[in-house]
Amino acid sequence: MARKSRLHIPRPSARPGDKPDFSYLDLAPAGSVDKPAIDARTRDIEHLSSGLVRVLDDKHQAVGPWNPNIDAGQLQIALRWMLLNRIFDKRMWQIQRQGRISFYMEAFGEEAVSVGQAMALRPGDMCFPSYRNQALFMYRGLKLVDMMCQCLSNTRDMCKGRQLPVMYHGKAANIFSISGNLSTQYPHAVGWAMASAIKGEDHIAASWVGDGSTAEADFHHALTFAAVYQAPVILNIVNNQWAISTFQGFAGGERRSFASRGLGLGIPGIRVDGNDLLAIYAATLWAADRARRGGGPTLIELVTYRAGAHSTSDEPSTYRPKDEYKSFPLGDPIDRLKQHLISIGHWSDARHEQLEEELKAEVLAAWKEAQQYGTMTEGPFLDPASMFDDIYAATPPHLESQRRYMLEIEGS
Amino acid sequence: MAQMNMVEAIRSALDVILDKDPNVIILGEDVGYFGGVFRCTDGLQRKFGEHRVIDAPIAEGGIIGAAIGMGINGLRPVAEIQFADYIYPGFDQIVSELARIRYRSSGDFFSPVTIRTPCGGGIRGGQTHSQSPEAIFAHVTGIRSVMPSNPYDAKGLLISAIESDDPVIFFEPKRIYNGPFDGDPDKPAVSWASHPKGEVPESYYTVPLDRAEVVVAGDELTIVTYGTLVHVAKAAAEEVGVRAEIIDVRSLSPLDVATLASSVNKTGRCLIAHEATRFAGYGAELAARIQKECFYSLEAPISRIAGWDTPYPHAFEWQYFPGKKRVVNGIRKIMEEG
Question: For the whole model, what pTM was predicted?
Answer without folding.
Answer: 0.95
